[in-house]
Design brief:
7 helices; 76% helix
Amino acid sequence: MSSKSPDSPLTLARCAQVAIAAAAVVDVFRAVAVQNRQIHPSAATRHTSGLVSQVFVYLMTIAAVLFLVWLARSRRNALVLAPQAALPGRGWLIGSWFVPVLNFFMPRQFVLDIGRASSPSWNPKRDSTQVNLWWAAWIGHGVVLTLTTQAAPGSRTALAVAEALMLAAAVLLCLLIERITSLQGAALGAPAPLSAVTQA
């Protein structure tokens, strides 16, 4: 057993979910404002896109920090619940998001490992599929947005696809945070989110 007492990451989960949702919504406005500036360049569109982009950067930074703190807490709890689980060190858990090439697949694997170690109730089919869908939407958003910026900066269809993927990734990640938090809360005897009743 770990020398550190485990605790449910419920508060962190809620904060991360709110920040992730807010960042995703603002990203839609940011993308529209930036494209509008490209199509109709003016002092007004430059000001609007700059302001919305700045707000997005702040929110995305907060969301990323809260998510990574929640992920590190969930990893610690998973090690207490399943000491035999082969989970990454905390530094590698966070650092893998920033290493080129590796950040295309390792974070997904680490989230899967934490989920599996959190409870025997982790459903290999349903829960793992949710992780895969989240990761596909997240990577897809980045790919489509990059291609749109470089090849078709004025395409509203491509922009809509990119932002739809961003919103989908945010929703799926919030649901994933809810699921892992519910499993750990139940295993640790802490109050679990109400949705745990329907997900069990």
